[in-house]
Amino acid sequence: MYAGKYFAMMPARRNKMTKIAIWCRHNGDNIIGIGSDIPWNIPSDVRKYQKIIAGQPLVMGRTTYESIPPETLSQAEVYVLSANREYETANPERHRVITDIRKFKDFDGNLYICGGAGVYEAFMTLSPKLLPDIVIDCVYDGPLQKLDGVPVHITPCIELLAKKYFKIAEGQTQDNVANHLYVKRGDFVDQSVLRHILSIIEQPN
Predict the structure, then answer these.
(1) Quick one: CA torsion of 113, 81, 120, 194, rounded to 10 degrees?
(2) Rounded alpha-carbon distances, angstroms, from residue 203 to 77, 114, 189, 198
(3) pLDDT in tens, 54-108
(4) How far lies 125's CA from each of 61, 92, 121, in Å?
(5) DSSP state of 174
């Protein structure tokens, strides 16, 4: 099923909350990082990622937060998941520390889930009310850089993706990165959110 047919089936309504997981993984082994680094550098994929999340509330773990240049997130509303409630963010007015992921069960508004692996897995496994409504699955099919550190993968999330979601669209493949859009089975999600994502992944960057 692809986006046009999906839109024809779904009612035109706005949900109170839409949770969107967005990741880029390596084809075949589902690696998203080695240590705290990403083992590929695809500028077009970074631009697409930044367009999707621009102006949106974001949630991420501390390692992911610290890996992103501060200026990139300076105007963003960011929730940093950390067990350390004393953790200091770069922008305390807009970047808040959250110690309990369950607070997002009834979050009011859209929420983009940006990693890392532990955060993705927590949203996808801890509670049905945390399960993302939409998954943007970017798949890199190229060589990995040789980096020091332990490979980080999201295989449990990809296994759940096959069981609990269905694909509604494939975006542009550019620079060895293919973009796939999934929605949770049994859900009708906010059309405006889907159209925003589609308008970006279907165009070259």
Answers:
(1) -10
(2) 26, 21, 22, 8
(3) 999 999 999 999 998 888 898 899 999 999 999 999 999 999 999 999 999 988 8
(4) 16, 29, 6
(5) B
pTM over 0.85: yes
Which token pair is 31?
């690696």
Q: Which two tokens stand for residue 129?
A: 């009310």
Phi-psi region of 126 (alpha: psi -120 to 50; beta: other; left: phi over 0): alpha
CB 182 within 8 A of CB 2: no
pLDDT tens digits, one per residue of 146-203: 999 999 999 999 999 999 999 999 888 999 999 999 999 987 788 899 999 999 998 8
Q: At what angle do helices 191-201 and 43-53 cross, to 10 degrees?
A: 160
What single letter denotes the amino acid at residue 41? Answer: N
Give strand ranges (E) for 58-172. Answer: 58-61, 78-81, 95-98, 111-113, 134-140, 151-153, 165-170
